Amino acid sequence: MNENNGELQPVEGGEIDLRKYIDIIVRHRWIIISVTIIAMVITLLVSFTMRPVYTARGTVMIEKEPNILSFEEIFQVETFRDDYFQTQYKLLQSRSLAERTIDKLKLWGKEEFSGRKPATAEDWNNPVFRRKLIDKFIDHLEVKPVRMTRLVEVAFKAHDPQLAADCVNALFDCFVDMNIETKYEATEQATEFLRQQIEDLKKEISQKEHELQNYGQQKDIVILSDKETTMLEKLGEVNKALTEAQIDRVRKEAYYNEIKNASPDYIPEAMNNPLIQRLREDYLKLSREYAKMQEQFQPEYPEMQRLKAELDTAQELLKNETEGLIKAAYSEYQAALKKETSLKRLFEEQKDEAFRLNSNAILYNSLKIEIENKKNLLESLLKRQSETGVSARLRGLRTSNIRVVDRADLPISPSSPKKLRNLLLAFFLGLFGGVGLAFVMEYLDNTVKSAEEVGRYTGLPTLGVVPVFGKDSSQGYGYYYTHGQKKSEDKDKGRGKKAGSEKPQNIELIVHFAPESAFAETYRSLRTALLLSSPQSSLKAVMVTSPLPEEGKSATISNLAVSLSQTGKKILLIDADLRRPKQHQIFKMKNHEGLTSYLALDLPLEKLIKPTIVPSLYLINSGPIPPNPAELLGSDKMAKLLSLLRNQFDFILIDTPPILTVTDAQIVGKLVDGLVLVVHTGKTPCDALVRTRELIDLLKLRTFGVVVNALNLDSHGYYYRHYYKEYRG
Q1: Whether the Cβ atoms of residue 29 and residue 429 lie closer than 8 Å to each other
Q2: Tens digit of each residue's pLDDT (9 = 90 or more) over 425-471
Q3: What is the spatial distance between Cα 521 and Cα 511, in angstroms, rounded to a whole number?
Q4: Could you tell me whether strands 674-680 and 541-545 are parallel, antiparallel, or unpaired per DSSP bridges?
Q5: How many other C-beta atoms lie within 10 A of the C-beta of residue 561?
Q6: Which of 27, 31, 452, 622 has the most CB atoms less than 10 A away?
Q7: How confident is the model at residue 179 (pLDDT cuts 50, 70, 90)?
Q8: Residue 53: closest CA among 167, 172, 163, 166
Q9: Containing H/E element for 680?
Q10: Kind and range of the H or E element at 154?
């Protein structure tokens, strides 16, 4: 019976756990700090090695001048108010204005623009060099309109502050000159255009009036009636009816052509008559039945003859209905064709009558209307010509709607690099980049990080938490040896061993050698939790395993055995990891005779159980590694051994291989009262925990809880850190 009370909880919840994100940041704090420092150092190096750049600024005001005429205004085309200003902004950044400015300042001779070697005027005439120099000038230029005003701020960047100011001021001068030239050039072009148009228009009006007079005298036209309007309306109606008749005839002809070759075996999709579709379905059904029976019976078989008769009848009915529908479609097509022919004949008659009765009046009216239109156009052009003439005479005054408000002054301090701003920006970018990298690494890391995650993935209670062991954790081993060595020496002297010879080099047996250490306290807490997790009568033989190798189960079970022996109980530790045994190394024993010798070679029981350096703690080492460890552990002799040992010891702890890698732990789990699962934070994958819980449930193994091993207390809660520091203090 499976007595695991915990249930698997959803791995992901909808609530945001702020502590989880803080925990991720704390655990990866060195990555975040490193990325931030690298970003700041790189930024400082770049900022101090960059050549300073100076920015000169000036302001210009652009007014819209209504007297300046464009071609659109000549023909009275409505323009948007903003189009003019947007055009001026683009002109300030145009290549033609940049070329004027470069030519005025002779920038090709400046080292900053031309390169290490100053260029000459001949180089400026080179199209490739000219294009590159213009592109470089535009890259250094910035045009920014001031919102809700007609002011435009122009900035230019250069390493030479005087050059930056000169470029802005020269750009303003060239922009004003180009504006004046463009404005009055357009005015002169408009004036010349209007003069030529007026002369041509006068000649056309005179010619058309002469033609109208001659045509009226020739045709003897005195007054025109309104009959031509009625005639044209009739002609339009007949034309409309003819078009509709043609469309109807084409549609019916297409339908007839599609279905005229229809047969019972092929019914076009256009023939969507319900009766035909039903007859076709019956015909196809009978055809399939006949073909199926034909595979088994001869045609002379009575049932085959009956089915053949029904098939022929269905085919005849389908053929008759199909032919009837084809004839109806043909009749409709012929009727539509006759209607089209009739309307076409009527249209020709109406057209001939219209030409015969009204052709003279229509031509006369068209000539008259044309003359009136040309006279109106002539009047408009004469008015425009007078306006452009006034504007053209103002060119000598050099008036412009462009006014320089602030000319560029010599910049005092460089605009870039801004060291403080760059440093702050690098700090925040490095900080956010480091945090992002930390979360990416956390997302890619599929191992458990905390006791809460272990409980969430396994649904099992946490019996104890063992901090990470190392030189920087909990003052290292030197603390434990200094305080725990003397007690170990006093006990070892009575056994004739050299004092201090059992000094451990790692966390294994730390409960024995450093009983007052923080690590020893964690294993005593584990012992207490285990004893309270179940009644004493059902807690006799306990198996300790882990999902995967190298997760600290051997060190956990050895320290747990020591802590249990310190209560005065008689404890037996069995190394049932017959593939990679380790307990003999922990207790400094030889592995010649052990569990495999007893199970396979009938080793006497008194030679199997060996005392250890810890009082009340005995060990059964694994013995030589056998070729069939699973078969030995699953034998009846192993079960009888455990039954016999239950009467001799208060507690039996069994070290087994990982439960997911081999079946040894699964076999031993059926022989014990329950198991303890050891999980290594930062090493045990989450999916391995889920698969372990599923396997435990499948085998119905009783589980007391989980030991979370190698937990980094510095990144998992202030309470734990505070507690252990106080304990060590």
Answers
A1: no
A2: 989 999 999 899 888 887 888 888 888 888 888 889 999 998 887 64
A3: 8
A4: parallel
A5: 34
A6: 622
A7: confident
A8: 163
A9: strand 674-680
A10: strand 151-158
